[in-house]
Amino acid sequence: MGNFKKDAEAAGCVVLLGLAIGWLIAKLIKTVLWLLWKGIRHGLPALWEGCKWLNRHPRTTAILLVVAGVVTVGWVLRAWHVLGIVGLAFVGVAALVGPVLAWRAPVWFETWVWRWVRSWWLRWVFYAPRWESWARGCGLVIVDEATLDVTSPVITKVSTGPAWDEVRVSMAVGQKTEDYEERVRELAHARRSARCVIRELAPGVVSLDFQRRDLIAGVVPAAAIAVELLGDAVDLSSVPVGVSEFGRVLRMPLFGRHTFCAAETGAGKNSFTWAPYRVLAPAVRDGLVRVSGIDPKGMELAYGRGLFHRYADKPADALELLEELVACMNERKLMLAGRRRKVTISRENPLEVLEFDEIAALTKYLGDKGQRARIEALVGLLLTQGRSLGFVVRGYVQEPTKETVVWRELFPFRMAMALPTASYVDMVLGDGAYERGARADRISADTPGVGYMLEERRRVPVRGRIAWTDDAGIEELVAYVRQPARGGDVVDGGRVVEFVRRNENKGGEAA
After folding, report:
1. Shared-domain flag, residues 321 and 437
2. In this predicted model, what pLDDT tens digit does every residue of 136-185 receive, in sequence order?
3. How many CB atoms lie within 10 A of CB 190?
């Protein structure tokens, strides 16, 4: 009996031990399977994301592959000392050849070497470590109210040029371009940059352009007159007038575009007046462009009196000039009615340009209400009907209020130079232009000719500097256009006359 009892207890212990071992094995298998499942579930997507990351960053991938290849060769051949010598030789050659190329071939070196190295360095060493704190500090993160999870926008690419950095950002879900435009000043201060421009590149993607260097700090010289050029070779739809903040040629449409410039005294409105005519001079000489001037002060336009086919410096004369222009426009309209929708510029139908300086003197401060109303009506006719007929108005004002310029919205191309208040900026360039970066109230008095331009169908104002034409340049212009006409008599298209640039550095938008 005693032996049976002992055998039963031993059997029970064996069963319990077997159950315990089986339970442990089951737990171990479950754990292994769980880890395997987690590895497949999270590892494969992570591996896929890693492959996509490497594909998005070819420069970093190439460097990693080179380093991995060197390490593999060194491990296989056991020749670390040889690889070390080769590496030092490569670095030494690069250190010697790089400065020589930068000296002898600066454009090639900047385009194909230094630009890429600088972009890589700025992304991973400068922008990437700081972006999270910038986004949080500028209020550009999305916080889930339920879980308090924070989602930040992600930098996808950094490009750099001689003067600007382009930081491409994929916005967080729930954000829009206007969120970044409202934080443009905060972003500029975070980067310690004088300027930040926001551009929408694609749905969900914006570019934050930071200025590192001001390319228009110096005076932009006027274009040289192309003395041998024929008038029909001038492109009247894209006239070079200066340099943009991105280092590119700043162009102004003339044929089919009325232009408007607002600036306080001393801001450089006269640069805006004379800059196009250095390029247009062959067309003016050959009778393809005819200029009229209204100059209430009798000062600015009077210096180049010989340029103008019609000129007025008194209210009565200005009214007569406008009546003559409107009559010519109506004659041309009757001639083209039912035959074509847009005039072809020729000597019989030249491009008529009206330079209207100090608009307020004839629209707000003129005592004769009858004359004032008549002038406003005639200018309104030119603005509403003249574009396709070859009649262009270029207006200038210091106070851009509706009381001063009743037809302000009829100017599709506008420029705001130095202005006293932020409200004036929005009056000239449209609501929200100041918040989008057009800080015309902060333009220094030491930089005449600097201003912000707004073109048709363009949301972001462009900062630029108009070329300066001195007294000698105006005298040269007048003497040239008074020469006998030459060449053909029809302009239908035409090529662009290149502007004499301040420098050869293209720069711009990380270009």
Report:
1. yes
2. 999 999 988 788 888 899 999 998 887 889 999 999 998 999 999 889 99
3. 18
